Amino acid sequence: MTQARINAIVFDVGRVLIDFSYDNFFAWLTTRGASIDGVEEFVERTDLHAYERGQLSNEQFLARLNGLLQKPVDHPELIAHWLDLFAPIDDMLQLARQLKAHYGVYMLSNTSPLHWQHVVPRFHLDAISHGLLTSYEVGVMKPDPAIFRAAEQRFELHAASTVFIDDLADNAEGARQCGWRGIHHTNTEATRRQLQAMGVILE
């Protein structure tokens, strides 16, 4: 059976369009007396995933961050360091811009309010897409099927004609389980090749 023509492309954001690293942030936490043994411990001790599901307010999350410190700081300083994680992936941002001329382009991100409210204007994500949706709005995180169904409703997507690009294989597979086509993003050229194999026209 012939596959449906792709008419919508949904991008994950972190490590697909925008890179991020906790290295500088963790180094700063250490200067304030925190002891963090990697990202998993940080996520657990701050309830980051609950925050990214919209179950914690900004104030509650910042209180958890300050709880890591022997020398707590005021919230503006804490926020400034929490936002200092990001860098553009220019060739992928350019790909999204090019695709927008011919396809519906959307973004679907597991993220938190403070980060999202920072990266959208800084990297002009609203200008290179037709719509944005986050885990904290929906109350669930990829690869939960509910977030893909929410994207279908929000953006009026048809699963068979939608492709999803994510740096995590589990999330790409979650999209496939919902009837989308999924690309596990590892680098720009590999993603471009997979899009072309699906019939997506690249300028």
Write the layout of secondary structure elements.
Elements: E1 8-11, E2 18-20, H1 23-31, H2 39-46, H3 48-52, H4 58-67, H5 75-82, E3 86-88, H6 90-100, E4 104-109, H7 113-123, E5 131-134, H8 135-138, H9 145-155, E6 162-166, H10 169-177, E7 181-184, H11 188-197
Parallel strand pairs: 1-4, 1-6, 4-5, 6-7
Antiparallel strand pairs: 2-3
Distance between the termini: 28 Å
- By CATH, the architecture of the largest domain is named 3-Layer(aba) Sandwich
| SSE sequence, one letter per element | EEHHHHHEHEHEHHEHEH
Oligomeric state as shown:
single chain
Strand content: 5-15%
The side-by-side strand order for the widest beta sheet comes to 5-4-1-6-7
Tell me the radius of gyration.
Answer: 18 Å
Q: What's the total count of β strands?
A: 7
**Any idea how many domains?**
2
Q: Please, how many helices?
A: 11
> Low-confidence runs (pLDDT<50, min 5 residues)?
none
**Proportion in helices:** 40-55%
What does this structure look like?
With 203 residues, the chain is an alpha/beta fold. It has two domains: 8-19 and 88-197, 3-Layer(aba) Sandwich (Rossmann fold); 22-82. The protein contains eleven helices and seven strands. The protein has helices at 23-31, 39-46, 48-52, 58-67, 75-82, 90-100, 113-123, 135-138, 145-155, 169-177, 188-197, and strands at 8-11, 18-20, 86-88, 104-109, 131-134, 162-166, 181-184. It has a five-stranded parallel sheet, sandwiched between helices. Strands 2-3 form a two-stranded antiparallel sheet. The longest helix is centred in the middle third of the chain and has 11 residues, at 90-100. 31% of the residues are buried. The mean pLDDT is 97.
